[in-house]
Amino acid sequence: MSQTYVKEPRQEAFEYWEGLKNKKLKLQRCESCGKYIYYPREFCPYDQGNLIYEEVSGKGKILSYTIVEKATHPYFISKTPYVLAIIQLAEGPTMLSQVVDAMPEEVTFDMQVEVTFEHHIYKDVNLPVFRPV
Ligand SMILES: [Zn+2]
């Protein structure tokens, strides 16, 4: 049996992971310039402004993707082939994530997607994944 080491999230990422626990996608938004950012950071990368968390729509589109044919971790063995995509969220930031509920050959550039949540058995966390709208 493989051992798993789960780190506590950094302070600035805590609310992101708490949101996922409750199946909500929450991103940081700058109080100064109003931009949403991802991944979690201590300060806004555009103007060093203070960041607060807000739940976002979870809607976006596929900017780019690849089809993964070989699992590089036991967790993915039953999932291959699967689509790994860069999703541009409606609020602006991009996320690297998996596309689910679609055959790899059905996925296209600019496909509209929405977030859903998948429980990761090895780390006991919910991860955001995306499915076609
Ligand atoms: Zn800012």
Automatic annotation (TrEMBL):
Organism domain of life:
Bacteria
Q: Which residues form the ChsH2 C-terminal OB-fold domain?
A: 53-118
Q: Which residues form the ChsH2 rubredoxin-like zinc ribbon domain?
A: 17-46
Using the record, list the residue span of the signal peptide; answer none if the entry has no such feature: none
Among Gene3D superfamilies, the record links this protein to: 6.10.30.10
Name under which the protein is recorded: DNA-binding protein
| Species this protein is from | Pueribacillus theae
